[in-house]
Design goal:
The protein has 2 domains: 3-73 and 333-448, Aspartate Aminotransferase, domain 1 (Alpha-Beta Complex), CATH 3.90.1150.10; 76-329, 3-Layer(aba) Sandwich (Aspartate Aminotransferase, domain 2). Helices cover 39% and strands 15% of the residues. It is built from 16 helices and 15 strands.
């Protein structure tokens, strides 16, 4: 039986639900990453490191809410906080104490957070960050890095053709696309020349702090340091997109690990403890452009402000879940546990690739791992990228190969995050052992079908 045949046979309930979904949603899914041929997995419940699909299959989960669940599914403290809040009310249409506690935790943990504003998602946070930067500088252009992802807003969508810097994307006004300059990552000379030529027109530079697609294509630490120096010299607002890395790499995010403080930071995922929530934080003089002027304040300078409504900003349930999660994450214990498990996983997965004679590498940073089938070189320490200690870029894995890997692992009871693994503090040594065996069996099945060499 092929990997595909076994997947269809083992997940018939998911197949039936997908037939219904196809009549409702594009591709039958509600998020791009959930698209999978011939149909995606439909989950019924989850707890700890596991989830159970509608067919009753028990699965070790490495998607972890798209990276939102550092503590694993249904952590008791988070569940209790949400349950208690639900009894008090789900939406007040008013300010509340929990949002204050949530905000205090963010400002305590994140060095760049002098002031913040909550949003409902990471996309909204990056939208607001860019608008704040443009208003603060009086400039329009935005520097982005190739392949770096910052949500789906007009200002941050589109990639340019090879060797070009002007992005293209259907549905986006030409003027909006012209306001973005997309540069190759890790090329300091290109960044320096661009800021030299365009600096007076550039409002901000935004980066995924560990590299494109949560570190699939790592960003040099030296590049990050130089970007901080160059943007400061040009009065360009530096924005760290820590939607994924925030509270994961360290309690204060990647900026603490790198000892680099940006002007603004965008956050989501772990911020909300598994419920919807995002935030833009940064220098008070930038974020306070949202503030409504107080009439008749002595010495106040009248200026235009940036409006920011949002029905679900600091939603009470999200605030309760987020505050409970950040209180636990503040110690760093959960990050250390997840990162230790990730290192163990990576080294064993790399050993499996070598012993199964399949070209490939598993690498990562903190508790985020990537599987690059076809890569001829593995990290020297079996885990970390070592700030690009390798001399090769990860290969582009074909859709056919990546889909087969995902299906094969699901057949063995393991779910991957887009060809990688988001590891939580809930994952155990038993999960690691089972994952390694599942990986070995999947590699053998893929070899049988000539999907890997």
């Amino acid at each position: 039986m092929t990997i595909l045949d076994r997947y269809v046979e083992t997940h018939r309930g998911s197949g039936r639900l997908h037939e219904r979904a196809l009549r409702l949603f594009p591709n039958g899914v509600t998020h791009d990453i959930r698209h999978q041929a011939p149909f995606p997995l439909y989950v019924e419940r989850a707890a700890g490191s596991r989830k159970w699909d509608v067919d009753g299959n028990e699965i070790i989960d490495y998607i972890m809410g798209h990276g939102a669940l550092l503590l694993g599914h249904q952590h008791p403290a988070v569940v209790d906080a949400v349950a208690q809040q639900a009894q008090l009310g789900t939406h007040y249409g008013a300010s509340h104490e929990t949002e204050v506690r949530w905000g205090e935790l963010v400002c305590k943990l994140v060095p760049s957070a002098e002031r913040l504003r909550f949003t409902s998602s990471g996309t909204e946070a990056t939208m607001m960050a860019v608008r704040l930067a443009r208003a603060f500088t009086g400039r329009e252009k935005l520097i982005r890095l190739r392949e770096h992802f910052h949500g789906w807003s007009d200002a941050l969508t589109g990639q340019p053709p090879p060797e070009e810097t002007l992005p293209a994307s259907p549905g986006i006004p030409a003027g909006m696309l012209a306001a973005s300059i997309v540069l190759p990552a890790n090329d300091v000379d290109v960044l320096e020349h661009t800021l030299s030529d365009e600096g007076s027109n550039v409002a901000a530079m935004i980066v995924e702090t560990t590299g494109a697609h949560w570190g699939t294509y790592p960003l040099d630490l030296d590049y990050v340091l130089r970007a901080r120096e160059l943007t400061a010299a040009s009065n360009v607002v530096l924005i760290f997109d820590e939607v994924i890395t925030g509270f994961r790499v360290t309690p204060g995010g990647a900026q603490v690990a790198y000892n680099v403080t940006p002007d603004m930071t965008t956050m989501a995922k772990i911020l909300g403890g598994g419920l919807p929530g995002g935030a833009v934080a940064g220098r008070a003089e930038i974020v306070d452009q949202i503030a409504i002027p107080v009439e008749n304040t002595p010495g106040a300078v009248r200026r235009e402000r940036i409006a920011h409504p949002g029905t679900y900003n600091a939603h009470p349930l999200s605030a309760a879940a987020g505050a409970a999660c950040l209180e636990l994450a503040a110690s760093g214990v959960h990050q250390d546990r997840a990162a230790s498990t990730a290192a163990q996983l990576a080294r064993e997965l790399n050993r499996a690739l070598r012993e199964e004679a399949v070209a490939g590498a598993v690498y990562g940073h903190s508790s985020m791992l990537h599987i690059a089938l076809g890569m001829e070189q593995q990290p020297p320490d079996g885990y970390g990228w070592g700030w690009r200690a390798l001399s090769v870029e990860p290969p582009r894995v074909s859709g056919t190969t990546s889909q087969a890997l995902r299906r094969g692992m699901l057949n063995e009871g393991v779910d991957l995050m887009a060809g990688g693994l988001m590891v939580s503090s809930a994952h155990t040594d038993a999960d690691v052992d089972r994952t390694i065996e599942a990986f070995r069996r999947t590699l053998r099945a893929m070899k049988d079908e000539a999907l890997v060499a």
